[in-house]
Design brief:
Strand order of the largest sheet of chain B: 3-2-4-5-7-6-12
Mean pLDDT of chain B: 97
Number of domains of chain A: 1
Radius of gyration of chain B: 19 Å
Number of strands of chain A: 8
CATH superfamily of the largest domain in chain B: Thiamin diphosphate (ThDP)-binding fold, Pyr/PP domains
Strand content of chain B: 15-25%
Distance between the termini of chain B: 46 Å
Strand content of chain A: 5-15%
Helix content of chain A: 40-55%
Largest sheet of chain A: 6 strands, parallel
Shape of chain B: globular
Low-confidence stretches of chain A: 7-11
Mean pLDDT of chain A: 94
Oligomer: heterodimer
Order of helices and strands of chain B: EHEHEHEHEHEHEEEEHEEHEHEHH
Largest interface: A-B, 47 and 52 residues
Number of helices of chain B: 11
Strand order of the largest sheet of chain A: 1-7-8-4-3-2
Number of helices of chain A: 11
CATH architecture of chain A: 3-Layer(aba) Sandwich
Order of helices and strands of chain A: EHHEHHHEHEEEHEHEHHH
Chain lengths: ~350, ~325
């Protein structure tokens, strides 16, 4: 049941493989540049609250985004900039949410990585880890009741979330209901500052799947080719009706938990190990080696993405900020049932 | 026809399932078995594929309901006991309660909580936890006290676009009876005058309405006319009806089966004290359960929660001030 993929067959030079890799790489690059911009805005004091980067996780995340269809369900987590973009999130949504624009999907009511468009299958995470998995289950469960078939739901978590009750309940629930859930664990060695040795005692997180009767895969999260293959296969299996799939990708978080965190606790040996490779560089070198693209084209993409990001930031910075006097301050949609008592007019 | 409160709950769910294809019920032992209290008796057979057994996973049950609501369904979640809803607390207060405000996408889920004390229930099958849910923005919290309200309010809850915490009292399940189901009802958010009087207002809800009614009957031969306000919904609170009653009687006693720290009775008193201070002829009082877990033995349990006798005693004391 457990499959370990760390040394894949050499990638075949079929057009679809090449196009998929190039597409995923572009989202990785766009995500890295977008994250870098958020980090710069944070350092300049232009962002309220935290900034959470996806550095080191782009290969895995982009693989998820490009493996899903627009009609699928996606619940990304904090380090899924690439997956969000690949799933179809406009750069403008990300920028507006970080800058708190009332024109963004969260309208300044929620911020940074807490963004999504639920009715488009793009679920906005809450901060409680593992909590989005059962929500994905719910969308899939409802679709089954509505006799809609062929869609898949992907939920992303980190190694830390595998210690939560919510993870256990939701993965077990998906298994019992045989839902087309693909649960992706980015085992990035640290949950904030806590190393995995304090998080779990099993040899490999993917082994947990056995206890749930779920198929699982271990994958090198620094290698785009392998991530694309494994995530693509798992998504296809879920879509074909084979039930929930658990993917555990090993990688290293190449940044702090957030930009406020210097990550001085990260073991230097991990940084110099294969886990510490930068997946973006690995992918770029691979694409160049395969002659699937060239340095000039990548530079061109880089320039185009940087301009796109600058334009989005410029546009959002000119947008009005949320106006507390324009807020209705109602937490429910049934306005006639709202508690007006404590609202000081 | 002789309908109990639990019959009303079952009939409301059957009605909702019949009328609206978006409705389904998810909970532990609710399918073929019909639920721990038989609130879904025969519904799985009547509505195949729409009354579904869940694993013992309160967190995932509510999470699933939120996802289904996003997908346009109207799930009803049966918690086997309100006490166990704390395992699903995170999904209720952080996921369901925030969804609309954060995303403008409504979250029409109904979470049924069989709550409140029964003899022998003990610490983990008796709790009244409406307060903790009412505290969080984004939830509607209902506490029907009659067979008719159990029916009409559950139907209205399922039809609402917001998450509803539906607190149905286990003590009332088979204790109350009605001739027929109502064809019309007060809307959610309106309190009901359960008994008219001029000497003192008792504001209460759920099973305590019946203790208060009994206390009022006990006090009548002594010449006291007690007015009883049944809140029906603790969030939103119908402050207007409470204030109007206090304006008539000048005296306020709030009675709740929940624990005393904070809560519905404290909220009522805070509102009346700040907005209706001039209406009061005496300091407002409240009566709640004792500040301990709910005891098991009937001798201890009847002393722990307010009873008709305790309500009458508190009312007498207030009437004499």
């Amino acid at each position: 049941m457990l499959q370990t993929v760390s040394d894949p067959k050499p990638a075949t030079d079929s057009t679809s493989t090449r196009e998929l890799q190039l597409s995923a790489f572009r989202f990785m690059l766009l995500a890295r540049l977008l994250d870098d911009k958020f980090a710069a805005l944070y350092r300049a004091g232009k962002i309220h609250g935290g900034v959470f980067l996806a550095r080191g996780q782009e290969a895995l995340s982009a693989s998820i985004g490009v493996s899903l269809k627009k009609t699928d369900v996606f619940a990304p987590l904090i380090r899924d900039t690439a997956g969000r973009l690949a799933f179809g999130e406009p750069v403008l949504d990300a920028v507006r949410t970080y800058l708190g624009s009332p024109l963004g999907p969260m309208r300044g009511r929620d911020g940074n990585v807490h963004r999504g468009r639920p009715q488009e299958g793009y679920l906005p995470m809450i901060s409680h880890l593992g909590a989005m998995i059962s929500v994905v289950n719910g969308v899939l469960f409802a679709r089954r009741l509505k006799k809609i078939s062929g869609t898949v739901g992907a939920a992303c978590i980190g190694d830390g979330a595998t210690s939560t009750g919510a993870f256990h309940e939701a993965l077990n629930q998906a298994a019992v209901e045989k839902l087309p859930l693909v649960l992706i664990v980015a085992d990035n060695q640290y949950a904030y500052s806590t190393p995995t040795s304090f998080q779990f005692a099993c040899e490999n997180l993917a082994d947990k799947a056995i206890g749930y009767g779920v198929e699982s895969y271990s994958v090198d999260g620094t290698d785009l080719s392998v991530c694309l293959k494994v995530v693509g296969d798992a998504v296809a299996k879920a879509r074909a009706g084979d039930g929930p799939q658990l993917i555990v990708a090993k990688l290293l978080r190449l940044c702090g938990h957030g930009e406020h965190d210097d990550a001085s606790y990260v073991d230097p040996q991990l940084k110099s190990s294969p886990l510490g490779r930068d997946c973006l560089k690995v992918a770029e070198e691979f694409l160049l080696r395969q002659n699937w693209t060239d340095a000039a084209t990548i530079a061109e993409w880089r320039g185009k993405f940087a301009r796109e990001i600058e334009e989005a930031v410029g546009q959002v910075q000119r947008e009005p900020a949320p106006d507390p006097f324009a807020e209705n301050w109602l937490a429910i949609s049934s306005e006639h049932l709202s508690e007006t008592h404590t609202n000081h007019e | 026809m002789n309908l109990t409160y639990i019959d009303a709950i079952r009939e409301a769910q059957a009605h909702a399932l019949r009328d609206d294809p978006r409705v389904f019920i998810y909970g532990q032992d609710i399918g073929a078995f019909g639920g721990a209290f038989k609130a879904t008796k025969n519904l799985a057979k009547e509505f195949p594929g729409r009354v579904l057994d869940s694993p013992i996973s309160e967190d995932a049950m509510v999470g699933l309901a939120v996802g289904a609501a996003i997908e346009g369904m109207r799930p009803i979640i049966e918690m086997q006991f309100a006490d166990f809803s704390t395992v699903g607390f995170n999904q209720i207060v952080n996921q369901a309660a925030t969804l609309f405000w954060r995303t403008n996408v409504p979250c029409p889920i109904t979470v049924r909580l069989p709550f409140g004390g029964t003899s022998g229930g003990g610490p983990f099958h008796s709790q009244c936890i409406e307060t903790i849910y009412a505290h969080y923005p984004g939830l509607i919290v209902l506490t029907p006290a009659t067979v008719e309200d159990a029916y009409s309010m559950l139907l209205e809850a399922v039809a609402l676009d917001d998450p509803v915490i539906f607190c149905e009292h286990k003590f009332l399940y088979r204790h109350l009876k009605a001739e027929k189901l109502p064809s019309e009802a007060l809307p959610i958010g309106k309190a009901r005058i359960a008994r008219e009087g001029r000497d003192l207002t008792i504001v209460t809800y759920s099973a305590m309405v019946h203790e208060a009614l009994e206390a009022a009957t006990e006090l009548a031969p002594e010449g006291w006319e007690i007015e009883i306000v049944d809140l029906r919904s603790v969030k939103p609170l119908d402050t207007d009806t409470v204030m109007a009653s206090v304006a008539r009687t000048g005296k306020l006693l709030c009675v709740g089966e929940a624990w005393p720290w904070g809560g519905v009775t404290a909220e009522i008193i805070a509102r009346v004290a700040s907005e209706g201070y001039g209406l009061l002829d005496a300091p407002p009082q409240r009566l709640n359960a004792k500040d301990t877990p709910v005891p098991y033995h009937p001798n201890l349990w009847t002393a722990h929660r307010p009873t008709a006798r305790a309500v009458a005693a508190a009312a007498r004391k207030l009437l004499r001030t």
